[in-house]
Specification:
CATH topology of the largest domain: Rossmann fold
Strand order of the largest sheet: 2-1-3-4-5
Number of domains: 2
Number of helices: 8
Strand content: 5-15%
CATH class of the largest domain: Alpha Beta
Structural class: alpha/beta
Length: 210
Amino acid sequence: MPVIFYARVSTAEQNLDHQIAQALAAGFEIDEIIADHGVSGVSTTLAERPQGKRLFDRLRAGDVLLVRWVDRLGRNYRDVTDTIRHFIRQGVVIRTVINGMTFDGSTSDPMQQAVRDSLISFMAAMAQAQAEATKEAQKAGIEAARRDDRKYLGKKPSYSRAALGSVQEMLVTGAGASAVAKETGLSRQTVLRIKADPIAADAALLRWRL
């Protein structure tokens, strides 16, 4: 059963090697890697991405599609749920690195199918909520940076734009501060500050032009 790891790397700061390392550290074996670089997950569906199109052509019944999180499979709730259900109908097993979720079509029991579909919907909704929260935080951060006279920048952030996104993504999935700190390499105190005020965390990056 080949395992195909799909990744979307939207910015220069995001690192494909790091995402692969996370998957391997979680115990996954990867047979093939398909990745889209410089592609926004907010404005493009999976089928519209160059390597996303390839993924649709590549996957066959019995294959395992591994992704860091379900948000890699679409730009919003509808895209994510439609994509997951499309692959399930094809006999593809979908697994996530974060939380170790598995979605497949192995069950024929109506109750178990209902539970599975509800979980898919819930995870997709969480992914969209995280994306929208990040966009709003960025908007507010930009506005805050514009109001700042830049005479005092404050302490330089110990995190990058990519790290901030990873922290917010993991927090919205329910991960604890200690687990997030271990995963991202940041201090627990930094993670808690980001959790308490994501807008301020984003504004600090903008003030320092990071």
